[in-house]
Each structure stands twice: as C-alpha cells, then as structure tokens.
Amino acid sequence: MPTAHCPALLPEKAASEERIGESSTFAGLDEKLCFPVYADSHALTAAHRPLLESHGLNYPHFLVLLALWENDGRSVKDLSERLHLDSVTLTSLLRRMEAAGLLRRRRNPADERHLLVELTENGRTLRSIVGEIRKTLICALGGKVGPVLELQEKVEKVAELLRAAPHLQPAA
C-alpha cells in the first residue's frame, strides 16, 4: 500500500511494471533499486582496496580521513553525522586509526563532555593520495568526470529523499 504514504505517486507505467505486471506484489532483483546500489557499493569499495592498501588504509579509514581533510578537528558527533555512522561503529574505527597514528582524539576544551578528532602529521600527509585515487577511479568509470558527477548527484538525492521520508523513520 505505498500510495497511502505517497500521495504524489504518479499513475504512469514504469518499464518494470510492464515486465512484472501491474497486479504483481513481487519485485525481483532486477526491479529493485536497492540491489544495484548495494552491488555498486561493494564494487566501489573493492576498487578502492588496491589503491588504499599500499598506504595501510581500508575504505572506512579513507572515509574518515576524507571527512577530516574537509574539516579537521571535528567532534565525534559531527563526524558520525557526516559519515552516517553510529557512534559505536565510529568509535571503534577511530580507536584503530589512533593506534595507527593517523589521528588523535582529545577532549574539547570548551566542553569536556565532547571529543574532538584531529589528524596527526601522518594523517595530513596521506591527503596527497586523493587526487590519484580519484583519477584512477574516473578512468575506470569511462574517463569523463561529468557523467560521474551526474550519477553522484542522483545517488545523493535518493539518500536525501529516503532519510527525509517520514514513513521510513524508526519508531520513537
């Protein structure tokens, strides 16, 4: 009963509806947006692996570093929101990265209840790998930046819409 939550649902037939029949309640993998996004996520993570391993990083480490290169000295809460990670997952990740000498956590002098995350010199030095990783991945995706940025905008819009949909929020 998706129309109860979405009064703006358009009555037009999608190609997938024609393939599976309007009255069908089953949507296979080929009709689900979530599956290619899931598979693409794995493919992107795997594509990053050989580019990051030589620097002692994995993909989650890289994401934390990217967020800190954008804005060093973020609070753990801000970092959690930026990366869409729960605090337990992020705290474990930050501990491992701190042990590896990539960052340090310290109490916020303005409010001792909050932790700030700052890059170490080793963490700042790794920023130089970003450009080469980006070029390598864009090359693997056809060599043109425009289509990659268009796809990125569409994927970000999907995530934004899903996070904002009131009927998909966890029960309070």
TrEMBL record:
Transmembrane segments: none annotated. It is found in: Cytoplasm. InterPro entries: ArsR-like_HTH, HTH_MarR-typ, MarR/SlyA-like, Transc_reg_Sar_Rot_HTH, WH-like_DNA-bd_sf, WH_DNA-bd_sf. PROSITE patterns: HTH_MARR_2 (PS50995). Pfam families: Staph_reg_Sar_Rot. Residues 30-167 form the HTH marR-type domain. Keywords: Cytoplasm, DNA-binding, Transcription, Transcription regulation. PANTHER family: ORGANIC HYDROPEROXIDE RESISTANCE TRANSCRIPTIONAL REGULATOR, TRANSCRIPTIONAL REGULATOR, MARR FAMILY. This is MarR family transcriptional regulator. It comes from Methylorubrum rhodesianum.
